[in-house]
User: Fold this.
Amino acid sequence: MLDIKFIRDNPEIVKEAVKNKKANVDVDELLEIDKKRRQIMESSESLKAEQNSKSKGPQSPEGIEELKKIKEKFKELEGGLTEIEKKFHEIMLKVPNIPSEDTPVGVDESGNKVIRQVGKISGFPFKPKEHWELGQELDILDSERAAKVSGARFVYMKGGLALMEFALMQYALSVLTDSGQLKKIIKKAKLDVPDTPFIPVLPPVFIKPDVFQKMGRLEPKEERYHISSDNLYLIGSAEHTLGSMHMDEFIKIENLPLRYVGFSTAFRREAGSYGKDMKGMLRVHQFDKLEMESFTLPEDSVKEQDFIVAIQEYMIQDLELPYQVVAICSGDMGAPDARQIDIETWMPGQNKYRETHTSDLMTDFQSRRLAIKFKRDNKSEFVHMNDATAFAGRTLIAIMENYQTEKGTVKIPKVLQKYMGGLEAIQ
RNA sequence: GGAGACGUGGCUGAGUGGUCUAAAGCGGCUCCUUGCUAAGGAGUUGUCCGGGUUAAACUGGACCGAAGGUUCGAAUCCUUCCGUCUCCGCCA
Assistant:
């Protein structure tokens, strides 16, 4: 949510953002409703002030009659106010965040800009297979039985693949929780951010509807799993319950930046992607993800995102995977984002870069709805929030396809071997 | 899931229809005194939404777990929900 004062003072900037983000919001209507809302508020509040001052202590019968009249008038005004506030709030929730200045303007993914490509795409002396072929042949990925038991877009991950997921997560945790390694990353990327380690968290995977709404992640609802018996949603990312963890709290300024790394299963209905990426585990209803979430001072949030991207790149480089960094354009980014940067990792089987990581700079868009603040010079301000993928299941696809051999086996990246009992290949 | 108790400011805790503009204590902050691993005194104290202001000052309203309701008037009465605790049951 944006600050209504900001919208009042900068209607053109907001209109531009609405247009570039393809949001369906009438800013002029919003401002008109805001004006009306404040008018009603003023008259209803002064009426209430009158009522308050007159209703002190026991009343004479005439006094009660007079107060009854004030009450009736007040109720009438208040009814109108409730209605208009509801409308006001509805539109406010739809206003998207303002894209950062360096966000490319564009209507869809064709407007995204590749910032850099890193790592050499290695040629194979044979035709590289797709991950689902490798997985099936090595008996580490079973979609057929998963379909039988759970339906389409589910998988069983088995044997070396199951082990590799845990290895990947453990490797990432070892980097993110170690200030020494973070310091190295900061130095290498020439950044000026503290080396505060990420606090590991295993968050809940259920979330209440109102909290989901405040995170700006409830929509599109068709994408969410809803448990009607308890009116709860399944999260689509650990971000959803990590970001809302400090809802309605003041974070002490000396605790900023506050960084978390959360592991959870992510649930996605994948509505609207019928027939797309049906094979294997690229697009599934359920996958595991390690997610970074950080709360910072407003002036630090952009470098925080740069830092987070540097961490992502550092770890992908450690896995020796070729990738590209992509600035997502206004029309393709999420409504709560100010700046979205994706990392696409090379997948030789598909002969394409595919999205494996994303990084979202939310500025105060979420914290304003969630009321997450800090105090500075006796004033309260909203924190800024960043969230980003550390690793998700898709990275395993990139590893399988890049590390495959002619015999159809999959070698294990060096940095992961120690987390897999020294295993060097899945065969 | 069953039975019972409870939810008040940063914390402890009083308040069962009007004097609550929420007592008192602790903590925090500011100043004073004293003089040294400390003590004492005075003052101050939250959040949100309006108005006002360059910014403040100032000012109106709301907030006692949440949402509704009763009443001229609700922390206090009623309803629903959420949460916490105790006991029982079930259980990785």
